[in-house]
Amino acid sequence: MLSVKSTKNRYKPSREDSMSKTIFSTMMAIALGIVALSATAVAQENRSLDDVLRSMQQERQAVADSNAEREARFRSQQSDQEAELRRIRQQVSDAEDEASRLENLRNELDRELEELRAQLNERQGEFGELFGVARAAAADMNEQLRDSLISTQLPGRGDQLSEMAQSSSLPTIEELEGLWFTMLREASEQGKVVQYQADVIGEDNQVSPQSVIRVGPFTAFGERGFMVFTDGSLRYLARQPGGGALTAADRVASHSGPGVVRGMIDPSLGSLLGLVIETPTVRERVDQGGWIGYAIIVVAILGILLAVYRWLALTLTSFKVRSQMKSSTPSSSNPLGRIMIAYEEHKSEDLETLQLHLDEAVLKEIPPLERGLNLVKVLAAVAPLMGLLGTVIGMIVTFQAITLFGTGDPKLMAGGISQALITTVLGLIAAVPLLILHAFAAGASRRLGQILEEQSVSFVADVEK
Q1: Are residues 294 and 207 in the same domain?
Q2: First to last CA, the chain
Q3: C-alpha–C-alpha distance, residues 277 and 298, integer Å
Q4: Each residue's pLDDT tens digit, 299-312
């Protein structure tokens, strides 16, 4: 106890020494920790490389096993594939043998067919020509029925004939009888007037069943006029014929019972009625004249109205003058009355002065009587000149069409030729009535002027007495 105490008392470490020992201890601990961690990392790295190597070996072994298995499977299937190849080659060989057999059979059958045909031609003899004529007659009759108006009443008649005409075999008795019956019925129906129901294409291109009256194979008409048979169907004409044709059709439609009724037929089986559509109306012909044609019509209307007005006015004036000639009381409503008034005012003067006053009164009345007549005469001369102008313009248009397109298509020149002809016609049509009316009006004016002069001379003669 004493010695110990003495030792403690003899050596007491300082504070700096304690801190140095602590630092040293800490550093040694850190160093030992680092060394331990490094050893652990190295051990782990060694273990991971071993695992990778081991997994690669396992994978390589698995691939080798798979390849071996596939090779074994291929080797086992090789025999099956060779057997399948032998089977297919055998099938090809069998098919080639069958094709050869069928080819030989076809050749044998062709030879047999030729022999049978030769035998058939030999046995037919004259019947072959007869049946050829029958097939030709069936084909011709089928074409006739296709274009016949009677087929709208009896459709489907040509089906059997078409089969008979296209058949390569001999026609049967029933087919020959059918051909004969069809020809006989077609001939009998051509002499009948029949009313029946059929599908008709209207003006709006809508098909509707309507009542149709057929006059033989020539003409068909319904409630709205005549029809044409085109492309296997009935169609109303776009423009109905005039000249009492519709009246004749109504007369045939309303007739019932025996007897004879007058009607109209188209002997061309619809061609003439079809031309009605192509024939231009008066309005269409006027339109062909262009603006010159319309100008001629305006000139003609104005001239005719003026001429008629002046003619009526002169006729009325002539009645008034003739009434005044029968009366001794002058009236200012007519030329002769106004001349008589002038005579009454100046009859007390000398003869020469009176005659001058009467001549003056007659000269005053002449211009109103001739008013407008010169204009009518000018219009009558201008109308044919305008027609000639239209003719020249139309010929220019025609020559331009010939220059551009040649003379191969006449339709290209039709417009200019139509204008040239229509304007000439319009000019002549306008000039003729204008000249006639001008002649009548001018004649009435001259007669009135002559009456006025005669009456004025008679007044002077009465004074001389």
Answers
A1: no
A2: 219
A3: 29
A4: 999 999 999 998 99
